[in-house]
Amino acid sequence: MGTMISVESVAKTYDSGLVALNDVSLQIEEGEILALLGPNGAGKTTLISIICGITNLSAGRVTVGGHDVVHDYRAARRMIGLVPQEIALEPFERVWNTVRLSRGLFGLPSDDAYLQDVLQKLSLWDKRGAQVLELSGGMKRRVLIAKALSHAPRVLFLDEPTAGVDVELRKDMWEIVRELKAQGVTIILTTHYIEEAEAIADRVGVINRGEILLVEETQALMRRMGQKEMVIELQAPVDAIPEALGKYNLALGDDPCRLVYSYVTQAGRRPGITALLSDISAAGLVLRDVQTRQSSLEDIFVDLVREPAA
Ligand SMILES: Nc1ncnc2c1ncn2[C@@H]1O[C@H](COP(=O)(O)OP(=O)(O)OP(=O)(O)O)[C@@H](O)[C@H]1O
Ligand SMILES: [Mg+2]
Prior knowledge:
Layout: E1 3-13, E2 19-29, E3 33-37, H1 44-51, E4 59-64, E5 67-68, H2 73-78, E6 80-83, H3 95-105, H4 112-121, H5 137-149, E7 155-159, H6 167-182, E8 186-190, H7 194-200, E9 203-208, E10 211-217, H8 218-225, E11 227-234, E12 250-252, E13 258-264, H9 273-282, E14 287-294, H10 297-305
Parallel strand pairs: 3-8, 3-9, 6-7, 7-8
Antiparallel strand pairs: 1-2, 1-4, 4-5, 9-10, 11-13, 11-14, 12-13
Helix pairs in contact: 3-5
The structure holds adenosine-5'-triphosphate and magnesium ion.
C-alpha cells in the first residue's frame, strides 16, 4: 500500500473569478475510503473534477497512481472511475450498451463476463435490456456506478452517490463500496449524510470555502472531538450552580431542574463522574435522573463549518 492520489497545493479560480479551491493538499492511500464532507459550494466537485482531469487546475500538482493528471492524463484517467453528481445518461440507450460503450471509451477490449458481474452486483442484470428512460432514479444511479466500474478502475470517485436514494439502496451502496475496498479499490466519496461517512469512511476530509479544514481517521476524529453531555435532573429547581460544584464544567439547563455536564470521553472513560455525583449530593441536591448524550460526527462537522459570528 502506498499513496494512490497526491494533491499538492492545488488552487482553482474559475473564469468568473470565483476562487473555488485554495492551496489544497491531500494524500490518499491505496485501498482506503475517504469521505469528503463540506457544505454546498465548498469545492468538493471541483476537487474531484481536477483529480479526474476534467477541470483544469490553476496551480499545484495532482498525481494518480504516480501519473500526473495534466501531463499524463490518459494513464491517470484510465485508473479512475467517476460517478458524477449529476445523472448524465443517454435516455434511449439500453443499460447493457451503456456500460459496454463506457468500457470501450477507455480503449479496453470487451469483457462481457466482467460487465455481467458488475451489473449483477448492482442488481441491474434484470434491467440490462431496458432503456435508461425506463429506469427509476435509484436505478439510474446504479447505472452510473456500473459505467464507472466498466473499465475496472483502481480508484473510484462517488460524488454524492446516495443523494435522493432510499434507505435500502443506500445500504446496498455501502455494501458495494465495502466490497470494492476489499478488492483494493481506493474510494473517495462526497456526501451530505454524515452518518454515511461515519458508517463507511476510514478517513474524513472536511472542506469549506475551498480549503481543507482537516483530514483525519473517522474514529480518531470522533474520539478526539466527541463531546459527551450528561443531563442531570434534580428533584427541586436551582437558580445557580452551587459554589461547591464550581470546579466542574456544569451549566444550568433550560429547565431549572436540570444541570448539564459536558466532558470529553477518553478511551471510553467518563472522567470525574462518580466524584461529580457524590459532590452533587454533598451540596444538598437530590437527583431524579441522569441521561447522557454523545455528540455525533454531525455535531463535530456543524461546529467546524459554522459561519464565524459577524
Ligand atoms: N463551471 C463553473 N464555473 C464557475 N464557478 C463554478 C463552476 N463550477 C463550480 N463553480 C463554483 O465553485 C464553487 C464550488 O463548487 P463545487 O461544485 O465544487 O461545490 P461542491 O462542494 O461540490 O457543492 P455541492 O455540495 O453543492 O455539490 C461554487 O461557488 C460554485 O458556484
Ligand atoms: Mg458537488
